Each structure stands twice: as C-alpha cells, then as structure tokens.
Amino acid sequence: MDNVDLVLLASGEAVFSFPKEEQSILRRWNETKAFEQQLQRTKHLPEYVFYDGPPFATGLPHYGHILAGTIKDIVTRYQTATGHHVTRRFSWDCHGMPVEHEINVKLARSVWWVFRELFNKGLVYQGLKVMYYSTGCKTQLSNFEATLNTKVVSDPEVMGTNLVMSVDDDGCFTE
C-alpha cells in the first residue's frame, strides 16, 4: 500500500486511505440513489436550468475538461444549496452546420436587411483577415478544427468569393 494515500500516525500506523474512502462514499451514493433523491426532494423548489456543454464530440479528455467540469459542478451544487431544483441539460458541439442551414433558410432575408442598415450607417468594419477554410464543407474552420488531422493535399478547385449585391423592392440586399 502506498503511503501517499494514507494518513499516518506518529507510530507509522495507517489510519485512513483517501482512495478507499472515496470508493466507499461513491458506492454508498450509488446504492442509495443519492442524486436521484436530491432531484426528487427539490422538485417543488424554483427551477434553475443548467445547460452543460457543449463538449467536443472528438478528442481526448485533458486538464481543461477537469477544470471546466469542476466549475460546472460548483455552480450546480451552489444552486442546489441555495434552494433551487437544478435541471441539467446536456448538448454536443456537432450539430452546428445543420442548425446554421435551417436558420439561414428562415432568417436570411431579415439578416440581409439588418446588415444593409448597419452598412448604410457606416457600422460595418471592412478589412482583410486570413481564415482557415474547408473546401469540402465550404465553410471557415475554428483554430481548433484547423489543427485536427491537418494534411497538405493537391486540390484542383479554385474558389473565390465576389459578392455582388443590389437592393430589391423591399430594401433588402440580394445577390
């Protein structure tokens, strides 16, 4: 048994093992369904909805996950301790493109109108910036995504963007 895990008396006798105690507590919580009981006992209290995530659907866990998880745990425990029924909602960071497409279909016209208003008031910044771009997905990539499995490939595709706009009868930009 490793002495790092133990509290030792002056005589050298081991009286406490942190890993064994933790396993004992977790076993007791699972047997008594402590988490489920806490939710049942607080269901009449004001609700606090905690949206957890989104974690990455790819990649291995690392220290950053532990840090973020600890902060999330503190928030939910604090809300429970201050008299709330905490509902936890989990999400994933892998549905961005389909959602963006649906939103674009439904809101594109009004977004272009807002953009035109901002542009006419001189509130749109114009400049150049180099961005990572996926020719396969036809979208820009985050710095994180751009560093995943980076490969140099020969692609005969030439892509350019030249947005030509005019204003339609409703005052909206059109391509």
TrEMBL record:
Keyword Protein biosynthesis: yes
UniProt GO molecular function: ATP binding; isoleucine-tRNA ligase activity
Keyword Nucleotide-binding: yes
Protein name (record): Aminoacyl-tRNA synthetase class Ia domain-containing protein
Annotated organism of origin: Artemisia annua (Sweet wormwood)
GO biological process, one term: isoleucyl-tRNA aminoacylation
Domain spans labelled Aminoacyl-tRNA synthetase class Ia: 25-109
Keywords: Aminoacyl-tRNA synthetase, ATP-binding, Ligase, Nucleotide-binding, Protein biosynthesis
